[in-house]
Amino acid sequence: MPQLFDFGRFRRLPKKKESDFMKRNNKLAKARFVIVLMALATLCVSAVAQENTTDYWVTKANDLRLNGSTDEAISAYDRALQIDPSNETVWTYKAQELAFSGRDEESLRAFEKALCILDDKLKLNPQDAKAWMKKGRALSSLGRQNESNLAHEMAVQIFNQSILEDPGNVSLWRNMAEALMNLGRWEEGLQALNKVTEIDPKNLDAWERKGEFLTLMSRTNESLQAFNRSLELIPENDTKERSLVWMAKAQSLSYVDRKEETLAALDKVTKLDPSFVVAWRTQGYLLADLGRQNESLAAYEEAIKIDPADARTWSEKGSQLVQLKRYNESLAAFERALELTPESGSKERAQIWISKGDALNKTGRPAEALAALQMSVDASEKALLSNANDTSVLELKGRALLKLGKYGDAIKAFEQAIETAMTGSYHAPTVWIGKGDALRAQFRNQEALEAYNQAILLSPIYSDAWAGRGEAQKSMGLVTEASGSFYLARKLGYQG
């Protein structure tokens, strides 16, 4: 069972089905739809809040995260830390966002900073259960799982003692639920949340959190009931809050591939909040997955109407136009995305150039396609000048080199990405898949099989890891094993 951290109103989780690299890489942008509703610890700050407060910048950062603006969110957290440099919660938020964007080395430093602050707090007050819980989360993110478990156990012990003294304290039960679930004791954690709603049946935070946990426990119908109860507690005129709960319902439904119901939930989101760009983009992605390409394109058009300067939406629209074989229009969309992405945004430009290169290949313009892929490599190298250990950029570079047929260089890029990826990194499985693809292109099938196996060990949900594994096994004469791998790839949605 995955660990769940109370790090922001939304947390990204991997989608179940992706069929190729572009979908896999874009999931980290698109799948802000596949993100988890948190407890209402998100700071509620009025629109007129002054810009010199930590609360203002944290709230702004959370809004930026929700809309897919990762770099801007990190900058907002930096503004908050300028005001309050000893705020371990903000350091943790920033660390998570850095990890999400592939900046694993910076993420580790931010988690370590949070850990130092927490250690100082615990020296002053060893009975601070919340600090122990936060320490456990930071340690887990640093890959120090045994220490993390000890910290969470300490939090549980302190919460237990406090509950014995004050059994009706909702806050204690609520925090106990978090500590238990971070230890993987999901049933006990759920019981603690049930205790919260028993004491306070109108506790919106607990109902929302309950829905989230039940989703991750694969108890979909119960999670939907919890979210429905949340909706009953939210005033009709609070459309933003209602849209967030509907987004969480969409996530829960997507986990069990109830795609039509997922789309219906997303439709509710966009009706409640027509400016919710990520919801429109996600609709576009799911409609395309269902083969409803024209409707998909219409959803992307709605997103562009809301924010015509959003390069990501233009790029995703370009990919959808490729699926419709409207190649000239797709190339125009990619060009627009490049125009909207500043030269300083080298990572984003590297991604768009790969997409454009693929489109050019499909139009029978191989020379231009190769030039576009080389532009992607150049953009990646430019980005690496400022951060040589950016895992996501190294992965992009490896993929572009692979498509250029420079297999040895691609393997080097993927191996560097593997070295820099921190424990639990979003990119760790995909860089192993990339390495496997490059090795297989060199007919080094045994080594490729080992790479695919490593990717599957890290996360078994990637269809192209299973497909690559099958191809390697097939080349090695392992027909029965290959058949099993191909079967699992298809079950996960592989269409290659």
Q: Would you write up a description of this structure?
A:
The protein has 496 residues and is mainly alpha-helical. 73% of the residues lie in helices and 0% in strands. The chain has 25 helices and no strands. The protein has helices at 21-30, 54-66, 70-83, 88-100, 104-124, 129-141, 145-165, 170-182, 186-199, 204-216, 220-233, 239-255, 259-272, 277-289, 293-306, 311-323, 327-340, 346-362, 366-386, 391-403, 407-420, 428-441, 445-458, 463-475, 479-491.
Could you give the topology of this structure?
Blueprint: H1 21-30, H2 54-66, H3 70-83, H4 88-100, H5 104-124, H6 129-141, H7 145-165, H8 170-182, H9 186-199, H10 204-216, H11 220-233, H12 239-255, H13 259-272, H14 277-289, H15 293-306, H16 311-323, H17 327-340, H18 346-362, H19 366-386, H20 391-403, H21 407-420, H22 428-441, H23 445-458, H24 463-475, H25 479-491
Helix pairs in contact: 2-3, 3-4, 4-5, 5-6, 6-7, 6-8, 7-8, 8-9, 9-10, 10-11, 10-12, 11-12, 12-13, 13-14, 14-15, 14-16, 15-16, 16-17, 16-18, 17-18, 18-19, 18-20, 19-20, 20-21, 20-22, 21-22, 22-23, 22-24, 23-24, 24-25
Number of beta-strand segments: 0
| Percent in helix | over 70%
Distance between the termini: 29 Å
Coarse morphology: globular
Whole-angstrom Rg: 23 Å
Q: With helices defined by DSSP (H or I, 4 residues minimum), what is the helix count?
A: 25
Percent of residues in beta strands: under 5%
- Structural class computed from helices and strand pairing: mainly alpha
Low-confidence runs: 1-49
**Overall pLDDT score:** 86
Strand-and-helix sequence, N→C?
A: HHHHHHHHHHHHHHHHHHHHHHHHH
Main beta sheet: none
